[in-house]
Amino acid sequence: MVMQSYMEKLKADTAKTNRLREAEARAKRPPADPRIVSTTPLKQQVQEYLQSQPPIMRDKPISLVALRAQLQGRYNARPSAGDLGIALTALRFTRKRDYSKNGGSGRRMWLPPE
């Protein structure tokens, strides 16, 4: 009987210590920034989006406007064009202007890596 009450007291003390440690750890964590929309890096979002497309779509040039509509920015609903350009460059995409006669108008297109 004495041993059981000792064990129960020890378990209760251990549980109390664990709760205190968890509370201290929560207090030390920085609060979540309410402005953050997405925590997924833009480069990873682009890769996941392109992998979800059929192969025929992956090999076509893509415009920033079309790609931007599919992704989320860190602090805004959509990523900035500059950040998206940096992510595409990191993924070895190359940019090229479309001066074709049928509606190209000098738009910038991003060509996938070969």
What characteristics describe this protein?
single chain, 114 residues, mainly alpha, 3-stranded antiparallel beta sheet, 3 strands
Structure description:
The protein has 114 residues and is mainly alpha-helical. The chain contains five helices and three strands. The termini are far apart.
Structure described in brief:
The chain is mostly helical and 114 residues long.
SSE arrangement:
Layout: H1 2-28, H2 42-52, H3 55-58, E1 62-63, H4 64-68, H5 81-90, E2 94-98, E3 107-111
Characterize the main sheet: 3 strands, antiparallel
What structural class do you assign from the helix and strand content? mainly alpha
Beta-sheet strand percentage?
5-15%
Low-confidence stretches: none
- How many extended strands? 3
Specify the number of helices: 5
Molecular shape: elongated
How helix-rich are the residues, as a percent range?
40-55%
The sequence of SSEs as H and E is HHHEHHEE
Q: How are the strands of the largest sheet arranged?
A: 1-3-2
The span between the termini is 76 Å
Overall mean pLDDT? 88
